[in-house]
Amino acid sequence: MAPARLRRRLSRGTPGQAGLDPEELAALVRDIDALPERGWCGGAVVLAGRGPYIVVEHATGWAVRWESADPVPMRVDTPFDLASLTKLFTAIVAVQHLERGTLELDREAAAYVPEFGAAGKDAITVRQLLTHTSGLRPGLPFYEGHGLELLWAEPPLTDTTYRYSDLNLLALQQVLERITGDGLDALVADGVTGPLGMTATRYGPVPDAAATEDQRRPWAKANRGRLRGVVHDENAHALGGVAGHAGLFSTAQDLAILCSTLLSGGAYGDARVLTPESVALLLDPPGLGFGVDQPWFMGELAGRGAAGHTGFTGTSLVLDRATDTFLILLANMVHPVRPLYPDNGPRAAAATRLARAIRN
Questions:
Q1: Which of 237, 176, 180, 192 is nearest to 212 (CA)?
Q2: How many angstroms separate the first and last alpha carbons of the chain?
Q3: Domain range holding 328?
Q4: What DSSP assignment string belongs to 124-153?
Q5: Could you tell me which of 243, 250, 232, 255 has the C-alpha nearest to residue 318?
Q6: Structurally, how many domains does the chain consist of?
Q7: Which residue of 19, 109, 261, 315 has the lowest C-beta tally within 10 Å?
Q8: Does residue 140 sit within a domain?
Q9: The pTM is what?
Q10: pLDDT tens string 246-276
């Protein structure tokens, strides 16, 4: 088994030190190397580890490959537009405020943001926002020039079973900003990335990030041209670039710190950002902000309580407390244009390679 988890720091290690099969890890790298050639992405960075050890850190393909520009090779420290991985940071900030008593999980969101209670949303709770059981639709066209009044006027659907929705985390952002008086960017920096030393994780612009899309209609929702270093998500861009559902940029190395923090019960090095009980709240089924045991992107890591998330741009993160393993796959899957039929197979295949590498 991997070494003790309390307040550890990550370092490079061998597969043997981490209890992982080197042949499966080599196959993981080969699989990732094939993705740009297959046209799944412009380029990618994969990072895998167990316990305190990073055992795979590999870049392939191109960070930029516009036809009219010199291609820019991908590096292991290339920043990526995280897209919906941003939701994890919003959820962590929310749970920090549960710890402090400034937020209640089963209290109505409208108690904090009265405007949100309009159009029949007055009974929606903070927990429902975090578990995507609010009845809100997946999204609204803020990119057409609308502000938050569009959210205030939106009625919920009567069906409150699980329905993944960006609106849930946008609403949670409004709650957090109202109870603190600070912007979400400051809350993430002060509560998460600053204490953990995640210096590459921030809201844009990030000029040296991997390029995303030549964003034009009809395949996109807005005509914004070639995007690099500015948020890809049309609604996050329309709302100023800082949003609860999208907008953060980060590197694989920074996300590895986040994974290690959660696997260690909320601590990394000398910093503690969550209690173990709060980590359990985030990661235990059904998860708060985190998806739990979802084979469509977790592959064979799913089944023991693995948690994580994906992002539309081609990002994914999986951590498995049962085996103390973590996998980060960052790709510019929408570069130079988004696929007509997105394929999540490579995400699941990478997680399965890591699952099969676990020796004990």
A1: 237
A2: 6
A3: 11-90+185-357
A4: -BHHHHHTT-S---S---GGGT--THHHHT
A5: 255
A6: 1
A7: 19
A8: no
A9: 0.97
A10: 999 999 999 999 999 999 999 999 999 999 9
